[in-house]
Specification:
By secondary structure, the protein is of the alpha+beta class. It folds into two domains: 95 residues, 2-Layer Sandwich (Phosphorylase Kinase, domain 1), CATH 3.30.200.20; 122 residues, ATP-grasp fold, B domain (D-amino Acid Aminotransferase, Chain A, domain 1, 2-Layer Sandwich). It has seven helices and 14 strands. It binds adenosine-5'-triphosphate and magnesium ion. Magnesium ion binds next to loops.
Length: 252
C-alpha cells in the first residue's frame, strides 16, 4: 500500500500519511525508551510484537463495541489507522498499585486497589507528562466535562475487556495507559481509543509467579524484553508459530 509522507516520528512509532484522507499508517519501531527517554535501547522484534498485539486488542475492543482507530494490519510492522485529534492526556487505569502510585503513596507494588482508579497526565514530554487533576483539564480546555465523562466510561470498558482477556491467559492486569482521539463525522464528534495497546503501555504480571511481562522488564533490567512480549503474544495465540526472530527475518 502506498505510504505517504512522514507526519510524526515518536519514540516508539512513526506515523505516515495513509492512502485515503483521514487515515494514517502507524509503523512500530524497535526502539524502547523509559523515564521520559533517559533510558533507550533497540529491542529486536518489539515493533513486530506490538503491532500484532495492538491489532489483537483493538479488534477485540471493536468486537465488543468499543470504538478505536484500528482499521487493518498492513504488514509485520505497519497498521492502517483512523486519523484523529489526540486529546493531550495519558489516561491511566490502575487495578493494583505499582510504579509511580506506589512511590508517591508508599503502597507496596501489587496491592489490590479498592476499585479501579483512573488518573490523567498531561502529554508534554518537556514537562515529563505531569499528573493533572480533572479540574486542570477542564479549566485549560484540554477536554470538556462531557468528554471527560465519556473518556472515563471508555477507559473502564477497556479495563474490563483487557482484565478479562489477560486473566484468561493467566496474567494480571496491574495498570495500563491509553490515549483517546476525536473524530469528526459530519456535525458530530466522537471519542475513540487511539495510539496503541501493548505491553509497552500495560503492566502485566503472571498470576502464578508474579513474573513481569511488560516494559518494566526493560525499565528495571529484569531480563529480555522480547521474550516477555513473545510470551504474552504466545498465550493470546497471536503468534502461534513464528517468533519475532522469524518475523524479523521476513521484514525489517
Ligand atoms: N489515530 C491517531 N491519530 C493521530 N495521532 C495518533 C493516533 N494514534 C496515535 N497517535 C499519536 O502518534 C504518536 C505515536 O508515536 P509514539 O507513541 O512513538 O510517540 P511518543 O514518542 O510516545 O510521543 P507522544 O509524547 O506524542 O506520545 C503519538 O504522538 C500519538 O499521540
Ligand atoms: Mg507514545
Amino acid at each position: 500500500m502506498a505510504r505517504g509522507k512522514k507526519i510524526y516520528e515518536g519514540k516508539a512509532k512513526t506515523l505516515y500519511e495513509g492512502p485515503e484522507p483521514g487515515t494514517l499508517i502507524q509503523y512500530f519501531k524497535d526502539d524502547a525508551t523509559a523515564f521520559n527517554a533517559e533510558k533507550k535501547a533497540i529491542v529486536d522484534g518489539k515493533g513486530v510484537l506490538n503491532n500484532r498485539l495492538s491489532e489483537f486488542f483493538m479488534e477485540g475492543l471493536n468486537s465488543i463495541g468499543v470504538p478505536n482507530h484500528f482499521i487493518k494490519r498492513l504488514n509485520m510492522r505497519e497498521q492502517l489507522i483512523r486519523q484523529c485529534e489526540i486529546v493531550p492526556l495519558e489516561v491511566i487505569v490502575r487495578n493494583y498499585a505499582a510504579g509511580s502510585m506506589s512511590k508517591r503513596l508508599g503502597i507496596e507494588e501489587g496491592t489490590q486497589l479498592p476499585r479501579p482508579i483512573i488518573e490523567f497526565s498531561y502529554k508534554d514530554d518537556d514537562l515529563g507528562d505531569p499528573l493533572v487533576p480533572e479540574e486542570y483539564i477542564i479549566a485549560f480546555g484540554w477536554a470538556s466535562q462531557q468528554e471527560m465523562d465519556d473518556i472515563v466510561a471508555l477507559a473502564l470498558r477497556v479495563n474490563d475487556y483487557l482484565s478479562g482477556v489477560m486473566y484468561g491467559v493467566g496474567i494480571k492486569l496491574i495498570d495500563f495507559k491509553i490515549e483517546i482521539g476525536r473524530v469528526f463525522e459530519g456535525d458530530f464528534m466522537r471519542l475513540i481509543v487511539a495510539d496503541e495497546i501493548s505491553p509497552d503501555s500495560c503492566r502485566l504480571w503472571d498470576i502464578e509467579s508474579g513474573q513481569k511481562l511488560d516494559k518494566d522488564v526493560f525499565r528495571r533490567d529484569l531480563g529480555n524484553l522480547t521474550d516477555a512480549y513473545t510470551e504474552v503474544a504466545r498465550r493470546l495465540g497471536v503468534l502461534p508459530t513464528n517468533g519475532p526472530a522469524a518475523a524479523n527475518s521476513v521484514i525489517n
